Amino acid sequence: MANSRKILLVDDDADLRFIYSTKLTSLGYTALQASGGAEGIEMAKREHPDAILLDVIMPGMNGFQTLEKLKAIPETKNIPVIFLTAFGDTTPEGLEFDKKVALETGAVYYFKKEADLKELTAKIEEVLSKK
């Protein structure tokens, strides 16, 4: 079991934050929520989560911009970030390009929001076990 590891969910979709937060909480994680990039950065600096699930398409600051800022801040640069997004689902080529940019920017994984929650939580556990 996760034993109160903190996961920060940064997504402008309140329903998705609720779904993932509920699932993570049921697995023993402490789920923190932010509705956008700027709020997510501030929460990451304040709460020091063990990992961040980050949406790509958000108003204001998108996920790529958010990740770049997180990696530039000493207290957040080493927090593993997993992109969880609906973006890139138009073509396989588009998804691969987005995944490449995400990984080059510093994300550890890139999942579509339709991804299996068991697979996602397994990846979260894998990421946390490397910390």
Q: What's the architecture, going by CATH?
A: 3-Layer(aba) Sandwich
CATH top level is Alpha Beta
Task: Count helical runs.
Answer: 5
Shape label: globular
The structural domain count equals: 1
Counted beta strands: 5
Mean pLDDT: 85
Radius of gyration: 13 Å
Low-pLDDT stretches are: none
Order of helices and strands: EHEHEHEHEH
The CATH superfamily title: Response regulator
Give structural notes:
There is one protein chain. This protein is of the alpha/beta class and 131 residues long. The protein has one domain: Response regulator (Rossmann fold). The protein is 47% helix and 18% strand. It has a five-stranded parallel sheet with strand order 2-1-3-4-5, sandwiched between helices. The chain is globular. The two termini are 16 Å apart.
Give the arrangement of secondary structure elements.
Blueprint: E1 6-10, H1 14-26, E2 30-34, H2 37-47, E3 51-54, H3 63-72, E4 81-85, H4 92-105, E5 109-112, H5 117-130
Parallel strand pairs: 1-2, 1-3, 3-4, 4-5
Helix pairs in contact: 2-3
What is the compact description of this entry?
By secondary structure, this protein is α/β, with parallel strands linked by helices. It has helices at residues 14-26, 37-47, 63-72, 92-105, 117-130, and strands spanning 6-10, 30-34, 51-54, 81-85, 109-112.
